[in-house]
Design a protein that fits this description.
single chain, alpha+beta, globular
Length: 507
C-alpha cells in the first residue's frame, strides 16, 4: 500500500420543504456546518464529512490531530444560486479558502443521495486539499495535489462502510476525449497556457489511482516524493524513480482501459458513529447569517461599508447576542468604522469574556489606530496587544491571536520579540493551509539562518497548483538553493505567497 512508507518519509525529511427549513448549526470533531435545512439532512451530511475524514485517515494510515477542536472547517451548505453569488462566478458548485482565521467552504447543499451529486463531489475534493496540507508538511506536485483531490471526491459512504477508488466519472470526457497529456507533461511543473484542465485533473486522478493500488509503482512514488522534497526537479525525479516515462504512459493507458479498477472498502464496524451536536441558530444569528457568509468570503472597503450598513440595524436589534456582536465587530472593522467595531466587541466580551473574535477585534482596532497615528509610544502598543494576549489565553490552539501578536510588532515597526516569533511558527503549525502565514514563517526561518526549515516551508508553496511557476516562494526557494542567504534570499521573493483560494466548480 502506497501510504505505509509515507510517515517514514516525513520523519526523514434530500432538502426539507421551505416551510420547515430553518438555519441550523451542526458541530462535529472536524467540521462546523451551517444550513437552512432539516436536522435529519444536516446530520446525515455532517456524518458523511466525518466519515470522509475517517476514510482518508484510514487509507493513508495517519492519526488525528490533537488540536483539531480549534481547527474545524466551517462549511456553508446553501442553494446553488447562493454559491454562485458568493463565489462571484457563474459556474461553480462550491469553493474553499483557508486563512489564519480558519478554513471555510461553500457548497451547493443538494440532497447528497446520488453519487454524481456535483456539490458533494466538489466539497469532498476541497476537503482533500485541506487534509493533505494539514497532514503532511511536504510538497506535492500539482498533478498529485489535484489528482488526490479527485481521488477522494468519489469516496462512497454508506451506513456500513466507506469505499475509496471509484472512477471519477465527472472527468470521463477529459480522460477519454480531452488533450492526451503524457506523463512527462504531467510531471513538468511549467503549466502551459491553454492546457486542457479537465484532462489535467482527470490524468492526475488516473496517476494517483495507479500509484495507490500498484505495489511497485507505490514504492516508486514514495521515492519520487523524497527526491522532489530534497530539491530534485519534478521531471528529473520522475525519470530517476519511475524510469522510462514513455513506458509509464503505456502502463497508464492500459490501466485506464481495464474493465474493472480496484478500490478499497473500509467497514465502519467497531467504530463510533461520529458525534454530532445540532442546534438552531439564535434569532439574531439567523438574521445575520447571510451577511456573515459575505463577510467571511471577503470584502474591500466599499463593499464592507455596504455590508456593515445592512448589519448595523440587526446588531441593534440583537445587542445581547455575543455571536452577533462578534460578527458585527468584524464587519464594522472591515468598513473602517472603528468606534462601532470597538462598541460591538465590548458588548460581545461583556456577555462572553472568552470570545476570541471579539477580543481580537478589540486589539486590531487599537493597533490600526496606533499605526495610523504613527505612534511611537511602547506603552500604548503594549496596551493594544493586551486584548490579543487575552484571545490567545482564551484558546491557545487558535492560530489567529498568535498571528496578530506577531503582526503587531510589524505594524509598530520594530523587531518581533522571540515570543512573537515563536508564536508565528506555532500559528503556522496550527494553520498550515494559510499560504501567507507559511510564507512569513519561512522568511523568519531565513532571518534566523535556519535554511533547511525555510526550504521545507517554501516547497509546498512553490508547488501550489494555483500559483504561477514564477511565484515569490519559487523565487526565494531558488535563491536559497543557489546559496543565497538572509536579506538577499528574501529580496528574491519581492512579495507575498500566491494562490490562496480555488473554485473547484470552475475547473
Amino acid at each position: 500500500m502506497i501510504w505505509r512508507g509515507l510517515l517514514a518519509l516525513l520523519c526523514g525529511l434530500a432538502v426539507a420543504p421551505a416551510a420547515q427549513a430553518e438555519w441550523l448549526e451542526a458541530k462535529s470533531r472536524h467540521f462546523t456546518l451551517y444550513s437552512n435545512t432539516s436536522e435529519k439532512v444536516l446530520r446525515r451530511q455532517s456524518e458523511a464529512l466525518e466519515r470522509l475524514d475517517w476514510g482518508l485517515r484510514r487509507f493513508l494510515k495517519v492519526a488525528d490531530e490533537p488540536e483539531i477542536e480549534s481547527r474545524k472547517v466551517t462549511v456553508f451548505l446553501v442553494d446553488d444560486a447562493d454559491v454562485k453569488r458568493l463565489c462571484w462566478c457563474t459556474n461553480a458548485a462550491g469553493f474553499y479558502f483557508s486563512r489564519v482565521s480558519g478554513s471555510t467552504a461553500y457548497s451547493a447543499k443538494g440532497g447528497w443521495t446520488e453519487y454524481n451529486d456535483w456539490g458533494r463531489i466538489v466539497l469532498f475534493h476541497e476537503y482533500a486539499h485541506h487534509f493533505l496540507l494539514g497532514t503532511y508538511d511536504i510538497a506535492f506536485p500539482a498533478w498529485y495535489s489535484e489528482g488526490f483531490a479527485e481521488f477522494a471526491s468519489t469516496m462512497r459512504i454508506t451506513e456500513e462502510n466507506a469505499t475509496i477508488g471509484y472512477a471519477a466519472q465527472h472527468r470521463a470526457y477529459g480522460l477519454m476525449q480531452g488533450e492526451r497529456l503524457s506523463a512527462r507533461q504531467m510531471f513538468d511543473p511549467v503549466r502551459k497556457s491553454g492546457m486542457d484542465m479537465d484532462a489535467f485533473y482527470g490524468r492526475g486522478w488516473l496517476m494517483t489511482h495507479y500509484f495507490s493500488f500498484d505495489g511497485e509503482r507505490s514504492a516508486q512514488f514514495l521515492s519520487y516524493l523524497k527526491a522532489l522534497n530534497q530539491g530534485t526537479g519534478s521531471v528529473a525525479a520522475a525519470e530517476q524513480t519511475f524510469g522510462d516515462l514513455k513506458l509509464l504512459d503505456r502502463k497508464l493507458s492500459g490501466y485506464l482501459n481495464q474493465r474493472r479498477m480496484l478500490g478499497l472498502t473500509m467497514p465502519f464496524a467497531g467504530t463510533q458513529t461520529p458525534p454530532i451536536v445540532i442546534r438552531r441558530l439564535s434569532e439574531g444569528e439567523a438574521d445575520m447569517i447571510d451577511l456573515r457568509m459575505q463577510s467571511l468570503r471577503g470584502v474591500d472597503r466599499e463593499s464592507g461599508r455596504k455590508l456593515y450598513a445592512k448589519a448595523a440595524p440587526i446588531g441593534t436589534r440583537h445587542a445581547d447576542d455575543p455571536v452577533v456582536q462578534g460578527w458585527l465587530a468584524e464587519m464594522a472593522f472591515d468598513a473602517g468604522e472603528d468606534d462601532a467595531a470597538l462598541a460591538a466587541a465590548q458588548k460581545a466580551v461583556a456577555r462572553d469574556p472568552k470570545s476570541v473574535q471579539a477580543l481580537l477585534y478589540q486589539g486590531r482596532v487599537k493597533l490600526r489606530q496606533l499605526g495610523q497615528a504613527k505612534s511611537t509610544d511602547p506603552k500604548a502598543w503594549n496596551a493594544a496587544r493586551a486584548s490579543i494576549v487575552k484571545a490567545n489565553r482564551a484558546d491557545p490552539d487558535d492560530a489567529e491571536p498568535l498571528w496578530w501578536f506577531w503582526q503587531s510588532f510589524i505594524l509598530q515597526g520594530i523587531e518581533p520579540t522571540p515570543s512573537a516569533i515563536k508564536g508565528l511558527h506555532r500559528a503556522q503549525e496550527l494553520a498550515p493551509q494559510d499560504n501567507y502565514v507559511r510564507f512569513a514563517a519561512a522568511m523568519a526561518r531565513i532571518g534566523a539562518g535556519e535554511i533547511p526549515a525555510a526550504q521545507q516551508l517554501l516547497r509546498p508553496l512553490a508547488y501550489n497548483p494555483h500559483a504561477g511557476v514564477d511565484n515569490p516562494s519559487s523565487r526565494v526557494l531558488a535563491a536559497l538553493e543557489a546559496g543565497l542567504k538572509g536579506e538577499e534570499a528574501i529580496a528574491a521573493g519581492a512579495g507575498a505567497a500566491n494562490g490562496e483560494e480555488e473554485s473547484a466548480g470552475e475547473k
